[in-house]
């Protein structure tokens, strides 16, 4: 995911650390290259600009350039700033608010983003790591295949799905899921809403109605990490219209340029909570800013 960015940055920093003494001008030149590398990785312009400015403020002046290992100090500052841009100040990654029984989790996102797969991956994780009893329900009444897909995945991972009843509306399904989850002693119920290829009125309206009925503890937006700045735009729009509590970035196993991960928090203010790293049910990880910053800097 970050291969190109990582390669570009290591080139810049190799030169910097080999140089020994550094002037403020050397740092500035290096940071100009960092800015270009970020933009090429599809990081949004204001985020790249703020990033470089923050590093520059910390890395120029006596303390760093006059130190014994100025290059390494600059790398350390860049690392810390990467962690900051990835996660903000809060450590919400991997955490879900499950503070009532049953706790509803609403899954939203565009069609093809990996929403249904991620719903099942998360259910498996909640079951296996947190010992939760989970019920999953598909609300995609337009696409019977999507409903069946969730059932198949549920059977595969040993997580119950709400039986499919033809002719129900998404709101009716959400209500039935809630009743079933309460009566059946489930800790969590997950509502996999319908996706569309683009954000349209109907999609938003439907998700909003379901949200109002379910009163979710978490509304997780699933977005395709390969789509760079588009992913961030989708997140902004979903958040404006429905309100999201966290983001799951999928396809982080692919060769996207990484911009979505780097811009998401800064632009939307929402935490990335998990990342999808493949099609398998195990391929979901907690989003760990430290590790990602480490990976970017090689
Ligand atoms: P939905 O339409 O948003 O529900 O999307 P699906 O869950 O059906 O996923 C669409 C395709 O993307 C499927 O083939 C998934 O296996 C695949 N997919 C989902 N998440 C990931 C991921 O993190 N990495 C990769 N490589 N593929 C994924």
From TrEMBL:
Catalytic activity: GTP + H2O = GDP + phosphate + H(+)
Principal location class: membrane
GO MF terms held by the record: 7S RNA binding; GTP binding; GTPase activity
Record-level GO cellular component terms: plasma membrane; signal recognition particle
Record membrane topology: Peripheral membrane protein
Residue spans crossing the bilayer: none
UniProt record, GO biological process: SRP-dependent cotranslational protein targeting to membrane
UniProt binding sites for GTP: 109-116, 192-196, 250-253
Keyword tags: Cytoplasm, GTP-binding, Hydrolase, Nucleotide-binding, Ribonucleoprotein, RNA-binding, Signal recognition particle
Domain annotation SRP54-type proteins GTP-binding: ranges: 271-284
EC number from the UniProt entry: 3.6.5.4
Family from the record: Belongs to the GTP-binding SRP family. SRP54 subfamily.
Functional description taken from the UniProt entry: Involved in targeting and insertion of nascent membrane proteins into the cytoplasmic membrane. Binds to the hydrophobic signal sequence of the ribosome-nascent chain (RNC) as it emerges from the ribosomes. The SRP-RNC complex is then targeted to the cytoplasmic membrane where it interacts with the SRP receptor FtsY. Interaction with FtsY leads to the transfer of the RNC complex to the Sec translocase for insertion into the membrane, the hydrolysis of GTP by both Ffh and FtsY, and the dissociation of the SRP-FtsY complex into the individual components.
Comment field on protein domains: Composed of three domains: the N-terminal N domain, which is responsible for interactions with the ribosome, the central G domain, which binds GTP, and the C-terminal M domain, which binds the RNA and the signal sequence of the RNC.
Record-given protein name: Signal recognition particle protein
Gene name for this UniProt entry: ffh
